[in-house]
Amino acid sequence: MKSDRLNRWLTLAANVGVIAGILFLAIELRQNNELLTLEANYAQFNMERGRRSRIIEDEGFADLIDRERFGKELTSAEKMRLRLHWLDVIDIWEWQFRENRAGRLQDEVLNLADWRVQWVIFSTVQTRYEETVGRRDPDFLLFMEENVISKLPTLNVDE
Fold it and tell me: What is the mean pLDDT of residues 18-31?
């Protein structure tokens, strides 16, 4: 009789331990998801910062972008550098879109106003985008159409 009672208490304690373990696991998973979201936001920040730093720190590259913007003559090597730069930019946009849709990147982190300005000011962005439409996620293409291309601002691009 006493051993039966002891077994029940031990079973109850084991069940409470299992439930506590499941609760701790749920808390751990939630913390891991929050950490992944923070890491995705930080990665996005670093990509944007890296791209801007390249333009700020490399005076020649800033000049190259300016010359492209105003239609000045470029060498083949300069055109290739710019082509890869704009492909990078569009790839970053698509990555941000996917991370946002997966819930790892907040809506306010997507800087769609900046995307629109770049689209208007740098016609090469449009060209590079059109060149790669076939390899892009259809959802991203729809997102771009609805949130960037159809909502372009009117800018004085000569400034």
Answer: 81
